[in-house]
Design brief:
- By secondary structure, this protein is mainly alpha-helical.
- Helix content is 41%, strand content 6%.
- The chain is built from seven helices and two strands, in the order αααββαααα.
- The chain has a two-stranded antiparallel ribbon with strand order 1-2.
Length: 132
């Protein structure tokens, strides 16, 4: 079975934390983050999230980074699923060439390994985070 380091080693650069439209949060994640911050969930949703349709997503600062990015993720212990699984996301299963596109934007993504192993690993990561 392939392992994470075959494909990715986080450089802690924050590139994945930059840009609008990244980290959507579900009710459970919003509750965990608000508890971690010691604030009411409604306050978290109103002060720390923007809305895309009916879905809350964590705001970005003027720097274009996630508001929880400060040289490292300040909510790492409770970060949303989208952040936890990066870069092993569903779009890789749709088209493995998405990996090369992501690699052009993320210095931690490696091109070693074959696409079948990558797909196998992405499926395993997604299955793991479906259970949590």
């Amino acid at each position: 079975m392939p392992k994470s380091s075959d494909f990715f080693e986080c450089q802690k650069c924050g590139d994945c934390c930059k840009g609008y439209g990244g980290a959507f949060v579900n009710d459970h994640e919003a509750e965990r983050i608000s508890d971690y911050l010691g604030i009411d969930q409604d306050l978290f949703l109103s002060d720390y999230c923007d809305w895309s349709g009916r879905r809350p997503m964590i705001k970005t600062a003027e720097s274009d980074y996630c508001i929880f990015w400060d040289e490292l993720c300040t909510i790492h212990e409770v970060k949303p699923r989208m952040c936890k699984i990066w870069p092993f996301i569903e779009s890789i299963l749709v088209d493995t060439s998405n990996w090369a596109v992501m690699k052009s934007m993320c210095p931690g993504i490696r091109n070693n390994g074959n696409p079948d192993d990558l797909v196998e690993y992405v499926k395993a990561v997604l299955a793991q985070y479906e259970r949590t």
